[in-house]
Amino acid sequence: MKRTYDKIRQSILSAIAGKQKTINEIAKISKVNWKTVQRHLTYFKGMGFIEEVFSSPYVRIFEITEKGEEELKKWKS
């Protein structure tokens, strides 16, 4: 059974919560392929839910913001 768009976004944002993570770590935890994770991260970054704290040609590291934590709490309730 396919997950809904909202469930995918919720699992990705939940995966980022806690500590800084790479796209591959987020994909592994959320069980979503990295290309899909990358697309949703662009949305989250635009909404201010996450920040890209490090970027190089080989790795990008993200962390959740306070606004992202608040959104995650809304989804969980």
- Please state roughly what percent of the residues sit in beta strands, choosing from under 5%, 5-15%, 15-25%, 25-35%, 35-45% or over 45%: 15-25%
**Sheet having the most strands:** 3 strands, antiparallel
How many domain modules? 1
Rg calc: 12 Å
What order do the SSEs take from the amino end to the carboxyl end, as H and E? HEHHEEH
CATH architecture classification name: Orthogonal Bundle
Q: Kindly name the structural category.
A: alpha+beta
Question: Terminal Cα separation, in Å?
Answer: 23 Å
Averaging pLDDT over every residue, what do you get?
93
Q: Given the C-alpha coordinates, what overall shape results?
A: globular
Overview in brief:
By secondary structure, this protein is α+β, with helices and mostly antiparallel strands. The protein is built from 4 helices and 3 strands.
